[in-house]
Amino acid sequence: xxxxxxxxxxxxxxxxxxxxxxxxxxxxxxxxxxxxxxxxxxxxxxxxxxxxxxxxxxxxxxxxxxxxxxxxxxxxxxxxxxxxxxxxxxxxxxxxxxxxxxxxxxxxxxxxxxxxxxxxxxxxxxxxxxxxxxxxxxxxxxxxxxxxxxxxxxxxxxxxxxxxxxxxxxxxxxxxxxxxxxxxxxxxxxxxxxxxxxxxxxxxxxxxxxxxxxxxxxxxxxxxxxxxxxxxxxxxxxxxxxxxxxxxxxxxxxxxxxxxxxxxxxxxxxxxxxxxxxxxxxxxxxxxxxxxxxxxxxxxxxxxxxxxxxxxxxxxxxxxxxxxxxxxxxxxxxxxxxxxxxxxxxxxxxxxxxxxxxxxxxxxxxxxxxxxxxxxxxxxxxxxxxxxxxxxxxxxxxxxxxxxxxxxxxxxxxxxxxxxxxxxxxxxxxxxxxxxxxxxxxxxxxxxxxxxxxxxxxxxxxxxxxxxxxxxxxxxxxxxxxxxxxxxxxxxxxxxxxxxxxxxxxxxxxxxxxxxxxxxxxxxxxxxxxxxxxxxxxxxxxxxxxxxxxxxxxxxxxxxxxxxxxxxxxxxxxxxxxxxxxxxxxxxxxxxxxxxxxxxxxxxxxxxxxxxxxxxxxxxxxxxxxxxxxxxxxxxxxxxxxxxxxxxxxxxxxxxxxxxxxxxxxxxxxxxxxxxxxxxxxxxxxxxxxxxxxxxxxxxxxxxxxxxxxxxxxxxxxxxxxxxxxxxxxxxxxxxxxxxxxxxxxxxxxxxxxxxxxxxxxxxxxxxxxxxxxxxxxxxxxxxxxxxxxxxxxxxxxxxxxxxxxxxxxxxxxxxxxxxxxxxxxxxxxxxxxxxxxxxxxxxxxxxxxxxxxxxxxxxxxxxxxxxxxxxxxxxxxxxxxxxxxxxxxxxxxxxxxxxxxxxxxxxxxxxxxxxxxxxxxxxxxxxxxxxxxxxxxxxxxxxxxxxxxxxxxxxxxxxxxxxxxxxxxxxxxxxxxxxxxxxxxxxxxxxxxxxxxxxxxxxxxxxxxxxxxxxxxxxxxxxxxxxxxxxxxxxxxxxxxxxxxxxxxxxxxxxxxxxxxxxxxxxxxxxx
Length: 1073
Description:
GO terms for molecular function: hydrolase activity, acting on ester bonds. It is an enzyme of class 3 (hydrolase). Belongs to the GPI inositol-deacylase family. The protein is an alpha/beta fold. The protein has 33 helices and 29 strands. The strands form six sheets. It has an eight-stranded mixed β-sheet with strand order 1-2-4-3-5-6-7-8, sandwiched between helices. The chain has a five-stranded mixed β-sheet with strand order 9-11-17-13-14. A five-stranded antiparallel β-sheet has the order 10-18-12-16-15. α19 (687-722) packs across α22 (769-811) and α31 runs parallel beside α33 (1036-1060). The chain is globular and about 115 Å long.
């Protein structure tokens, strides 16, 4: 089969666009495009590629959907399917059936052998643009997707009208909505299109996103990008609210999204580009209209996947394709109009019921089996209305004779073969002593290989009242992903125990009212003239809820960084081994290795022969089933790891962020291990993996902290100027800010203030304060180290360049004079004539003004990053010139001081703010040397250089996206980015010197210590700190722009004050020596 992409021509009333719209067709024959468009009759699905993606990425989903429609629905599964929770189904409002947890269940099971309609896949060609880096590109993509949706719906109407002229084909229903499927940023574009003011009402009712960011952009550096995300998310919150509010574009109409269902599919911890917290729908879409699910916990998938592989992973593509086909209503041939039915279809087909089985999610208030136990005897529970977990009557075993029933007297029941026997377990006897829970793991298929019943009392005669009150719970069994099939020499002669493929767990509430339990195995014919090998095909056990539970403290977990630790499981241990990790594996990934120590062969023939490792391993593989691990996190859901022998446990959670739910601060790991065998579990924390995950999760937080640290550094420099002390260097100011107890304790109080405020005003609890404070301080320390390293590197580079210039100027002065003498006189005359022109004369007389105008023009008319690059070059030039002047002065005094200062000696002549006394401050007429004045100028310019360098680097991704569209995009930069960058340019030019530092805030602590620019830097640093905590570093541009506007005002006041003579004596002056 070959893919064909049929272009859809634009409508006559729309202008030509660089984007395109295509219809996907799967086949090997050449087709007539026009005829194919006239035959459109399926359900329209529009695929939206992500950042730098291609429209051809639709092929995997479209081709598999075509195969799924032709092959029909998947085989019937006898395992329990996912059910809606009380919050998702809104039981009290909708009166949804509590037993099935599904509205419209009968429609979904009436598919038969074919689906009711096929899917027509469309795809938009967005020219491979980087929409994750620029807000304007994202908005343009949204505009085109809205046009594409209208074009698709109009095309169906045109096709139907054209067919009706020939053969009166009026029975086909014209689609009224389009299903949107978006990958990466395409998923956010799909959501933005839903709340777009130009979209027709009801044109989109279902949105499926694959690894798409929703709460915040992956690269939250550009202000316009963050603002666009905030605006779209604000519209979604208003759309689902009950009160009527205006739309997100300021319109007076009410935007209702009650008919829209959104499903967000995440890649898990393997997706390094879009974290699970970003892709979550929490706070945006209510649980009655949205579903967030990770691929490791998805039915028939069970795999974490990378950002791109989520598009072509066969397990995921097959499951999503069949789920979309199940949305089609039999009557209309289009998706269900009821959003509850659509959400129930997604939950049933995608989500595993494992979280509800173990009580990790909300449970029904009353067990339906408990209700069935007390039903009147005259009512048969074999009817589907009262036994949702019963097997179908059409399933018949070849031999259902129960003459050789077995009566189990131990807590653990083991089934060795498919012998057709029924095993009786006395719940009252075996469930005593606190063992009121039951668990069963098996590799037999429910209904076809094994059946489980609950009996209020023992009965055997057909049609008796006891039998009529028997409840079957076979289909309550939940599917587990089976590992590789065991090796077989001949049919039935496997040399390894098969991994479990299903688990059944019954709580004390579900067992209440019943006396007996029966586990029945289907009969199996003899293979190869002998019975099948003795191998445990199913293992069940009565257990205590707290039995086998181990809580690992944070100290115990962190100690494994230095040395691994072991946990021993002896034989006859609980089948469910519950590990509660007090520190989430999202912060500290845990390496776990399970080895079999023994497997109940002490009395075997090898007991006296001391079997070697090979024989011991072979027997244990035949005796014990492979362990299975279930990892639960409240944010990311459940992940299942079959054949769990050596794995790294890591969840994609963020437990130390101030917007994280409290439950995610710990991880739960349940290991299903054979109770007949003894195991040794070795655990250790992977430090490289922990560091990698720390940077991935908290990278945006560190970026915001870096700006805050530089603003705090400028605060110390401005404060030194206000106290008439030497201006310290960047490194000296950072070192002072880290001094304990103050000011480091004062800065570390910011997380406490934020945490307390969120606890008071938020309805939902946040993360643990200890982990929140610890991780925030760690991010602050990491950002400090990164800024210090950057400061050292730039300082060394500038010092080396200045030293080279001084060396060349001093050592090669004679050579330069000779070179100048050889230059013809006419060349000097031409240069002088050129420099005397108006343009060059203005540049020579006012170079700062000229550079500022160039930077402003680039900011508003080209790209803001280019204007900031000019500003950074200006700061570099200022630092370079100040340092050259300082070193030149030192070189001239070399005869008196026979050394050239090193970077630490020349640049770190600093004051100690702790030893400053107001009475010891120099008088206003104190004279400082020219060298010291240049050194102070370098220190302050160096701080501005680092601050604006990081701000420029934050806009580099947007610059890269702009460069891709160079020559095609004639629009101006987004006004928000340009205006904020303009404020930064004003700060760089008008605040390049500290002589504008005018007292603004009086401090009552001492005389003559009014705070000016230092107070402004402190407030901006606090705001940047909070922006980092909120994972929104783009907000620091607001603080920097505010500083720029304020410096202009201060410069005007300083000029007026200098004219009046008020500020001329506020600062020391220098004499050139």
